[in-house]
Amino acid sequence: MFQDMRREKILDLIRENGSCTVQNLSQIFNVTQPTIRQDLEALEKTGTIVRQHGGAFINNYASFAAQLQLEHSEHLDEKKRIGSKAAEFVQSGDSIILDSGSTLTEMAKCLASRTNLNIVTTALNITLLLGKEPSNHLILPGGEFKAPTLSITGDRAVALFENLYVEKLFLATGGFSLQAGLTYPGFSDIGLKRAMIQSAKTIYLLADSSKLEKILFASLGCQDKINYLITDEGVDPQYVQSAEHMGIHVIIC
Known about the structure:
Layout lengths: L2 H15 L1 E3 H8 L3 H13 L3 E4 L2 E4 L2 H7 L8 H12 L7 E4 L3 H8 L8 E4 L2 H7 L6 E3 L4 E3 L4 E3 L1 H6 L5 E6 L3 E3 L3 E4 L5 H9 L1 E7 L11 E4 L6 E4 L5 H9 L3 E4 L1
Parallel strand pairs: 4-5, 4-9, 5-6, 9-12, 12-14, 14-15
Antiparallel strand pairs: 1-3, 2-3, 7-8, 10-11, 11-13
Helix pairs in contact: 2-3, 5-6, 6-7
């Protein structure tokens, strides 16, 4: 992998996880630790990360948790429309899984009028949003905290889904390709996303058009598990046709 490409993927990974160690990055990218330190030094000069002993963290890490602020806020208008449309598929009394992230947060804001929901979510901010309704029953897994998405991840979080089954999962992704499937900047969430998918009957993927045919570092696949893709009008008509041919019903909003 070329140096600039590796540094771009390192930055994506740190933005996704909030922080990373030199040792883990060295293993992931199969380069020496001194090489990773040079990469982190170069990224620090851009102002996007801050180095610490043994690793680095995203520059404004503290503000995410302190202000319940999400790191990814691009394409917000599209995400609001997607979230609003996705909320139409939830009725009072439903049992659902809500993934984390900015699009799912917009969806959660549109669920304020629903009652008696059984909700499993990995997102702390979504828990606080929907927990205001006393008739809702919310379950938040234990695990490792990810500041940029205000979410919980890791093996302990995966364990919650082992004996869980719901009607509907509303899923986020870093990228979605009809060939590579669901892709993410790093491997930390792969097991958790797989467990969510296995725990739901119907899967709604919420992805704005900038994420379609975007392939990131870690691939989960599972394109054959997606029942509905909710996206915006920027999607290529040929992409819609190909997705429909694979059995994915595309909803454009």
